[in-house]
User: Which sequence fits this backbone?
């Protein structure tokens, strides 16, 4: 009975965590380009605030949670401050000002992703649960929350409106207050030693291990892919409204609902993670994710809302594999590999590489390339070339990962794996 109550509390947390993000993440581009009519380069800069925040905030907040403050309390405080910033967004009327407001917002939000994982893992372990088996069915409700948020924004016809940020702010406020009722997750590393230990920098020692270093570097590369699809997917589907043949199709009228197929796909792949991760290991799972990213972008390049709608649908289905097989599996891999005293710091480091360096590179470079190479003098984006270039990037990443990552997986019940 106690385990069931804990599970329900974690389900509610994960649902709200991703409802907040889903309320604005995929439709921010539509608001930017179609309502504000600001430039791609400026959009790349503002969207990269997630990456800038993730460069230091998840790691910094992970250190705080490891050493000084209960993770669930820190989690609640961050959401409350983030809610205030989201309520301010509709009042902003210049890209420069919006950059700073969004930076503060995501500085609060991005560390909550890894903190929610830390709180969940801690609660499950206290109940004697198997994290690899029991966490994915809980985390899947985060995806459900993201889907519900996307549908809410689309059905309310506020995809291009600043009201979406009011919805996100209200949900962040609720979650921030709810967080203080979550299972306690106190600091574990309370015995301060060297300066490295005091500052929580021990997690960076993971880079001394070849396989962990390669893992983190390629997690960064996949983080760039994630930002590309988040930034431009909704705007891409909205672009078909300029073609009379597609203008009245449901895909164009409700693009965010179409994109939510991606999150629906996630629910299935999340539940498959315990099986595939234990059976095939992290290298195969990550490589599969990289190839899925290539398919995601390649199908977008050739699909349309008419006769080739199946390509867009298939691209969204593939997304679930692309996202979950590196994001969720990666966090579980880290949980299994690192010392419990630096668990929050290590999860923060993973977040820094994916949503930090990866996001900054993906957002800023893609914004510059699209503005320079794929945008006409009339401001029309040539999406076919954009998506093909992203697909080529994903293929190169997959080939390099297959060559460089040497971690040898051994199935449970046999000898432990060896690392180079």
Assistant:
């Amino acid at each position: 009975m106690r385990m069931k109550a804990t599970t329900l509390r974690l389900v509610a947390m994960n649902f709200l965590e991703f409802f907040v993000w889903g309320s604005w993440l995929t439709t921010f581009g539509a608001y930017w380009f179609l309502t504000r009519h600001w430039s791609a380069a400026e959009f790349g800069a503002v969207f990269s605030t997630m990456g800038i925040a993730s460069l230091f905030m998840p790691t910094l907040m992970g250190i705080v949670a490891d050493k000084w403050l209960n993770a669930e309390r820190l989690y609640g405080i961050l959401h409350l401050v983030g809610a205030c910033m989201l309520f301010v967004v509709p009042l902003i009327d210049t890209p420069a000002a919006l950059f700073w407001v969004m930076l503060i917002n995501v500085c609060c939000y991005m560390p909550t992703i890894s903190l929610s994982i830390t709180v969940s893992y801690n609660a499950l372990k206290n109940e004697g649960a198997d994290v690899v088996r029991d966490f994915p069915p809980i985390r899947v409700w985060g995806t459900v929350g993201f889907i519900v948020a996307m549908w809410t924004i689309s059905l309310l016809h506020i995809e291009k409106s600043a009201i979406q940020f009011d919805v996100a702010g209200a949900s962040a406020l609720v979650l921030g207050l709810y967080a203080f009722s979550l299972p306690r997750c106190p600091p574990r590393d309370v015995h301060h030693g060297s300066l490295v230990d005091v500052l929580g920098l021990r997690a960076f020692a993971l880079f001394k291990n070849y396989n962990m270093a390669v893992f983190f570097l390629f997690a960064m590369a996949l983080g760039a892919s994630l930002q590309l699809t988040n930034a431009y997917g909704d705007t891409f589907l909205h672009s078909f409204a300029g073609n009379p043949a597609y203008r009245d199709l449901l895909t164009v009228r409700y693009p965010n609902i179409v994109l939510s197929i991606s999150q629906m796909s996630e629910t299935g792949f999340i539940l498959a993670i315990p099986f595939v991760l234990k059976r095939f290991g992290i290298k195969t799972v990550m490589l599969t994710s990289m190839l899925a990213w290539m398919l995601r972008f390649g199908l977008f390049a050739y699909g349309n809302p008419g006769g080739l709608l199946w390509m867009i649908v298939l691209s969204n289905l593939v997304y679930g594999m692309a996202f979950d097989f590196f994001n969720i599996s990666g966090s579980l891999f880290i949980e299994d590999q690192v010392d419990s005293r630096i668990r929050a710091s290590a999860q923060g480091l993973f977040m820094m590489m994916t949503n930090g360096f990866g996001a900054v590179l993906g957002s800023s470079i893609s914004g510059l390339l699209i503005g320079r190479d794929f945008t006409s003098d009339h401001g029309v984006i040539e999406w076919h070339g954009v998506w093909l270039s992203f697909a080529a990037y994903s293929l190169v990443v997959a080939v390099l990962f297959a060559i460089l990552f040497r971690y040898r997986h051994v199935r449970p019940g046999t000898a432990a794996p060896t690392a180079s």
Remarks:
- DSSP finds 15 helices and no strands in the chain.
- The radius of gyration is 21 Å.
- Residues 415-420 have pLDDT under 50 and may be disordered.
- Residues 217 and 353 are 7 Å apart (CA to CA).
